[in-house]
Amino acid sequence: MKTRITELLGVEHPIIQGGMAWVAEHHLAAAVSEAGGLGLIGGANAPGEVVRSEIRKAKELTGKPIGVNVMLLSPHAEDVAKVVVEEGIKVVTTGAGNPEKYMDMWKAAGIKVIPVVASVALAKRMEKYGADAVVAEGCESGGHIGEQTTMTLVPQIVDAVSIPVIAAGGIGDGRGIAAAFMLGAEAVQIGTRFVVAKESIVHDNYKQRIIKAKDIDSAVTGRSHGHPVRSLRNQMTREYARLEEEGKSFEELEYMTLGTLRKAVQEGDITNGTVMAGQIAGMISKEQTCKEMIDEMMEQADRLLGR
Ligand code: TUI
Fold first, then answer.
1. 300 C-alpha to center of ligand 1: Å?
2. Domain 4-200 class?
3. Which of 73, 144, 258 to mutate to test the pocket of ligand 1 (most atoms within 8 A of CB)?
4. Ligand 1 first shell, C-beta below 6 A
5. Which segments of the chain belong to CATH 3.20.20.70?
């Protein structure tokens, strides 16, 4: 399937992988790229040198393009922003903020810049600052989210900008891809389904929690402080919600969650850890290779779109 995004990124399929913290490391990114999508290394809160090493390891596994997601709330965002230039990365996505201050540097290096946005206002602003595309991410997504659903956000952003739009949030199969295209998107970003990929290094407890999840199993914490985060309900989300209701400060709550995503992803502590995942977790039923996932999704999307 050819769209402005497949042309822009030089990929076979209009699928990019989410830049998920602790999850989007070199094995997953290389596997998605090898399967014809765009794999991403998630910078998350990692220091620049860690991201550099992940990029180099991914390049050893694939000759196809890979991108990097720069998480703008990270204390290391500035370093990571420079590392992507030094390592010759061709595509950068950004999350959880406004990447304006890095845009000139990235554009000068020939990098395609694709900010993840959760509002029409930021999408328009990013276009004005030279973004090559935007990811319109609805609140069905896992992790840090905005307020709008994918169904409402994508067509409003498509109408507001001329650059191509990538839909994200709640997409996990060919039906979701076809629906996103009907809304005017020219590619999709997929996170939660790739968490359970065979090539994903995520602890099996985390994968099984996603595979067993029901439609209503995720919860959003942190809304009262303007930092909503979606994860699967457990002891951690219940405790967070209780303290949030008691009026604990953002700092106290942040302190409580420090390191808890890593604990779930790497140690498999899905009770006290943070199990970030999107609402589509309820539909995800098995571990497959990235190639199996992508081939299956594209075959279904092509059929539904009559291609
Ligand atoms: O960034 C994400 N998802 C993430 S980042 C992350 S790490 C983290 N963990 C706990 C707390 C905070 C971060 C886990 N998941 N998705 C992209 C995304 N960006 N979703 C929403 C936004 C966003 C929201 C507001 C982008 C820009 C924005 O406003 C910026 C501005 O200054 O106007």
1. 30
2. alpha beta
3. 144
4. 21, 44, 71, 73, 95-98, 116-118, 122, 137, 143-146, 227, 229
5. 4-200
CA-proximal residue: ligand 1, atom 4 (nearest) = 144
CA of 228 to the centre of ligand 1 (A): 9
Q: Which atom of ligand 1 is nearest to the CA of 125?
A: 33
- How remote is the CA of residue 36 from the centroid of ligand 1, in Å? 26
The 3-class secondary structure across the chain, one letter per residue, is: CCCHHHHHHCCCCCEEECCCCCCCCHHHHHHHHHCCCEEEEECCCCCHHHHHHHHHHHHHHCCCCEEEEEECCCCCHHHHHHHHHHCCCCEEEEECCCCHHHHHHHHHCCCEEEEEECCHHHHHHHHHCCCCCEEEECCCCCEECCCCCHHHHHHHHHHHCCCCEEEECCCCCHHHHHHHHHCCCCEEEECHHHHCCCCCCCCHHHHHHHHHCCCCCEEEECHHHCCCEEEECCHHHHHHHHHHHCCCCHHHHHHHHCCHHHHHHHHCCCCCCCCECCHHHHHCCCCCCHHHHHHHHHHHHHHHCCC
From first to last of the 307 residues of the chain, give the pLDDT tens digit.
Answer: 899 999 999 999 999 999 999 999 999 999 999 999 999 999 999 999 999 999 999 999 999 999 999 999 999 999 999 999 999 999 999 999 999 999 999 999 999 999 999 999 999 999 999 999 999 999 999 999 999 999 999 999 999 999 999 999 999 999 999 999 999 999 999 999 999 999 999 999 999 999 999 999 999 999 999 999 999 999 999 999 999 999 999 999 999 999 999 999 999 999 999 999 999 999 999 999 999 999 999 999 999 999 8
